[in-house]
Amino acid sequence: MHNGHLRWLIPDGYLPPISSGDLISHEAVCVLNTGQEDAMIAITVYFENRDPIEFKDMICKAKRTNHIRMDLLQDGKFGTIPKGVPYALELVSSVPVFIQFSRLDSTQPALALFTTMAFPV
Q1: 16 CB contacts (<8 Å, ≥6 apart)?
Q2: Cystine design at 60: which of 26, 31, 95, 120 (Cβ 3.0–4.6 Å)?
Q3: No. of H helices and E strands in the chain?
Q4: Span 5-120: which CATH code?
């Protein structure tokens, strides 16, 4: 039996163009797969004034987690998520999973960390 959902939305993403100190500002999608099958995950990144970027073939193995850093995603056709540009995410999984979204903002020495559950559809 699988717990979770197949489709998740995260409406507010932003990668700051600068960081301070040793920690790099970043965001991460944290995937939890409690099921018996590996999850194949596709991530679509939406923007205000440009075409979406798609990242496919992300894997979260059965009974495991996968922390996907948004600033490290690479796609041969589209490149990376640009810094300093607001974006939103849609994640579609082949099996039900749970999605949590985290942001580390180190643009100033008093850094901030937040996390929230994504919206299941």
Answers
A1: 25, 83, 84, 105, 106, 107
A2: 31
A3: 0, 8
A4: 2.60.290.11
pLDDT at 1: 62
Instruction: Report yes or no: 81 and 70 within 8 Å, Cβ to Cβ.
Output: yes
Average pLDDT, the chain: 91
Strand partners, 31: 66, 99
* Three-class secondary structure of residue 70 per DSSP: helix
| Alpha carbons 55 and 41: distance in angstroms, whole number | 9
Task: Give CA–CA dist 92/102, Å, rounded.
Answer: 18
- 85: how many CB neighbours lie within 10 A of its CB? 15
Q: Please give the Cα distance from 50 to 6 (Å, whole number).
A: 26
Q: Look at residue 64 and give its three-state secondary structure.
A: strand
Q: Which residues of the chain have pLDDT under 70?
A: 1-2, 76-78
